[in-house]
# Entry
Amino acid sequence: MTTTPPPTLVRTGCRNTDIPPAAALSWEAYAGRACYACGKALTTGAVLVGRAKGRQGAHVLDTDVYACP
# Structure
């Protein structure tokens, strides 16, 4: 017999999504205000997933990316 966890414990697949290059992020995701995978606005409980890396000439565009809780 299998039981399903309560809706509050179900995790989204956003944090399992590969991190795109920094240049491919939206402005909101680049600033850490939106999920990098689905684009949903983040308010509380955001999960730090890693760093999006990138360069534009001599400028380093690396930034932390966050996912839905």
The chain has a mean pLDDT of 87.
